[in-house]
Each structure stands twice: as structure tokens, then as C-alpha cells.
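User: Show me sequence and structure for the first protein, then do the same for the second.

Assistant: Starting with the first protein.
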Amino acid sequence: MNILTLFTLLDGAAGAAGAASGGLAAGQGQWSMWIMLILIFVVMWFFMIRPQRKQQKELQKFRDGLQKGDKIVTIGGIYGTVVEVKDKTLLIEVDSNVKIKVDKNSVIKDFSAVNQQ
């Protein structure tokens, strides 16, 4: 055996060992990537999606509990007082003897407890 063959064999053995350890490190890197992606999703869930769902449930509860005499604001910015409540619609009075019919889903706020100036 000459020295060139010996170096070639040693280089091949070192390359195989490096590939084996590199493969292990690459596998660990993939797992850490998946763990980071899952953690990012969990953080987004708690800070963005969960509060929005909670707010939507509260708004739906408010809309289902509307009664005659409640002061409301619609999505379009129309202020009025509820005159009649039906399953999906409301009849609101916006001025003396001016009544309009709106969809319940267009109501966003309740001003019954707020002092009007």
C-alpha cells in the first residue's frame, strides 16, 4: 500500500463518519424546525385567534339579547333606538317618526348605559 491509497481510505472513512454525524444533526434540525413552527402557531392562537373568537361570541350574545328601547349603532354608523325585535331583523327609530328596518348582524354597539349629550 502506498501513502496515496492510505490517505484516500482515511479520507473516505472520515467522510462517512461526517455524513453519519451530519445526518444526525440534520434530523435534529428538522425536529427543532417543526417544534418552532408549532410554537409560533400556538402563540398566534393565544394572541390573535382566541381573543377574536371570544369577541365574536360576546357580540353574538349582545345581538341575541337586544330588547325594545335599547340604543344602538349599526355598522354604517346609524344611531337609533330599537322599536321592534324579530328573528333576523330590527326596526329602529332614528328620529321622531322615522323608522328603518336593519339586519341584526349590522348592530355593533349598545349605548343604553352611555350618557348622551
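Switching to the second protein now.
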Amino acid sequence: MMADLLAMLVRLATGVSIGRVDSWTGKPCVFFANHGSNLDALVIWSALPGEIRRETSPVAAMDYWTKNWLRRWISGEIFHAILLQRKGRPDDRSHPLQAVYDMLETGRSIIIFPEGTRSPDGSLNPFKPGIFHLKEKFPELVMIPVSLQNLNRILPKGQRLPLPLIGRITVHPPLSHVEGEGREDFLKRARNTVASGLQKTLCDE
């Protein structure tokens, strides 16, 4: 109940919602997107249809989402986030993505940002290889690209309260499987798909 209320409030505040996700079958999938704001994970999670949202966990930065009790409560009790250290390995010296692997193996979907860190000006940085490792470890995983527009302006870096602007979200068809595709080619293709949604918005305005 509280999760649905929070999702509704975020949709109202940002104007971002998704009517349906045709490629979602109920099996675990990865929603991956550009990253320009601390709102990104919360907005994608809130915009998803309820039946998908309840089965999806964002991957988020541990240092940001554990900074105070409210962030800890939202990340832990509301959207069951997977909190990762930005640098180095976890304290138990396990693989940096082990918590993500564990969550996918339970049957939940995830939201991830392959750039690894926010882009303050909204430009799309190169994708880091973590998303490729997910594809290699879980070959049947559905990879769904998402393009976020305007969120870096709604909550710019250093801003505490969101500005009254409208965001946009584009959910692309899943990435197709390319036999023998190497890491660099996969990362380039994934990034280009996300970038295509950003370019379309610029052309439409």
C-alpha cells in the first residue's frame, strides 16, 4: 500500500508513467537506462505497471541510499533496492555484482544504470562492462533498454527538492541476441539504443 502511494506521488511529481511493457513475461529481466539524476531509479520503478514494479528491484549506490533514515527506509522497505559500493569490492570480498546475481536468481527483475555514475549535464557516458557480465552469466535474461529525458533538470546535482518540470521515459524493445558478439560491440549497441531515445526527444522538440 505504501509502495503504491509513493509510486503514484512520484508519477504525479515528474509526469512519467508507462502504460504497458509488452516484452515483460513475468520472468526476470534487466531494465537499463541512462543516469542523470538521483531520481532515476525511483522514477523508473514508480513508472512501471504495478505487476512489474512489485517484482523489480533497482540497483543503487549504497553511500547515497544509506545517508539518512528516510533513504534507508525507501530503499530497503519500499523498493527492496540492491545497494552496491561505488568503488572497490564488498566488505566480504565477494564479486562486486554478487548481490545482483543473487537477486536475479530469486526471480526478481532489476533496474540498472550501465554508466555507473550520474552524468551532471545529461550527456550519455560510456557503458561499463557490468551489464555485459550479466548477459554472459544469465544468457536467457531479457535486456530492456530505457531512455530517460529531463530528469537531470528536475533534480540537478546538488538540488535537494525536485523542480516542477515534466520528465519523459521511453521503453525500447528488448535487445536481440547476436551470436558471438563481444563485450565492446554489445556495450556499444546497448548504449546506442538508449541514446536513440534521447536523440528522438531532441528532434521532436
